[in-house]
What we know:
Shape: elongated
GO molecular function: nucleic acid binding
Helix content: 25-40%
Low-confidence stretches: none
CATH topology of the largest domain: Nucleotidyltransferase, domain 5
Strand order of the largest sheet: 3-2-1-4-5
Number of domains: 2
Mean pLDDT: 80
Domain Integrase catalytic: 60-184
InterPro entries: Integrase_cat-core (IPR001584), RNaseH-like_sf (IPR012337), RNaseH_sf (IPR036397), Transposase_IS3/IS150/IS904 (IPR050900)
Radius of gyration: 21 Å
CATH architecture of the largest domain: 2-Layer Sandwich
Organism: Mycoplasmopsis edwardii
Pfam families: rve
Distance between the termini: 20 Å
Number of strands: 5
CATH class of the largest domain: Alpha Beta
Amino acid sequence: MRYGRRRLSKYLFLTYNIKVNPRTLGNYMKRLNLFTFVRRKKRQKEHKNTNVKFADLVQRDYNSKNNIIYATDVTYIPAPKDINQNHIYLSAIIDHKTKFVTYEISLNNDTELVLNNIKNTKFKNNFILHSDHGSAYSSIDYINKIKSLNGKISMSRIGNSLDNREIEYFFSILKSEIFPDFLW
């Protein structure tokens, strides 16, 4: 259970009818070395202007009958101890219907990472690949690769991660469950 002191206090009251002040509960938790993992709020980033313009074909509607909508993104994860770097990059592609994930890992966040991931993925005909406006997804190599596979490119609005919420949610769960001790 990953409850904070307020939520745990409410849980104890509703479930066991035990009334404990959240501050008192926090003191008990501190004495017993019990800690909660709370995600940090993300800072607002300044909006970037990009010359590559693709429509948002998905528009947050992931209920395609033909299983043709995929989402992709790149994130960083902690590197294993035998690699002389703090983190490595993970490119993932997720099918919105089956939630099936393909991924590629690299030391560099570049277009080659994304292209290798696309190369290893079996897409259906006339698929839509939804991404953000990252530099790898704005590159000419990426655009040509998707067109050569008879796919359509869909990009979320700039600075709006909720447009690509399926893959962002996957990364959020991956980071909080698999790497809870890593400082994001």
